[in-house]
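It is worth pausing here to work through a concrete case rather than discussing structure prediction in the abstract. The textbook approach is simple: state the sequence, then state the predicted structure, then interpret. We follow exactly that order.
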Amino acid sequence: MAGAPRMIPPPSRELRARRIDDGIGRDQVETLAEETAVALVYNGQPHAVMMATPADLDDFALGFSLTEAIVAVPEELAVVDRLVTAHGISLQMHIPQARFDALEQRGRSLTGRTGCGLCGTDRLEAAIRPVRPVPRSGLDPTRLAPYFAALQEQQPLNLRTGAVHAAAVVDADGELHVREDIGRHNAIDKAVGAARRAGATPVALLVTSRASYEVVHKAAEAGIGLVAAISAPTALAVRLADEADMVLVGFARGSRCTIYAGR
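Step two, the predicted structure:
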């Protein structure tokens, strides 16, 4: 008799640990973030394997596909199955044949990482990709504090575990679409996917991390005109933001921020 189908694991687990304070130890229960290998499979062909939080996986599938320019609009992607095995989760997706052919031309790199790095890239010349111009967001980069305050309040997994990143997409109506993940790029993909699955138009991206090249590039692919991070950007991220005509803000904490691009 076949075993019961495996279920997607929860995003966190409780484990016993021993805490030491000033030399005094005590046993207690800790809540830890889960991480799982998630394979992104297009038309039956594996493209990438990411270490990710096993939650909001349909958002992840769409957001990754959009920010990596695998598809251009949500209607081009269908998640046809979610296979759970002892080794991880496989997101089985279908895309139009023309999109799949273009993906095949890129070359693939099957890697296991925590949502960082250059997905599906096996050549140095393909690593730093051109960025497309983006529309201005219409948001005042000096008035982002209320959005970051709202983002802070919508991180239940990080509140329990202290181990995950968060990203928020601000849409054209001023609504926030917040997602969490152990990987900062995964959190961005999930937030973008959540916004687009809701039929919203993304205009800004807020992240609880630094702003790297990949963060800016993903935002540009999603048509986002403003990126704000609580930490610093990299120099390459600033150059890319300038190229895209994007507003790039770092050290966005309370009433303080530094505008690096799009001034």
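Step three, interpretation. The first helix runs from residue 57 to 67. Residues 109-113 have pLDDT under 50 and may be disordered.
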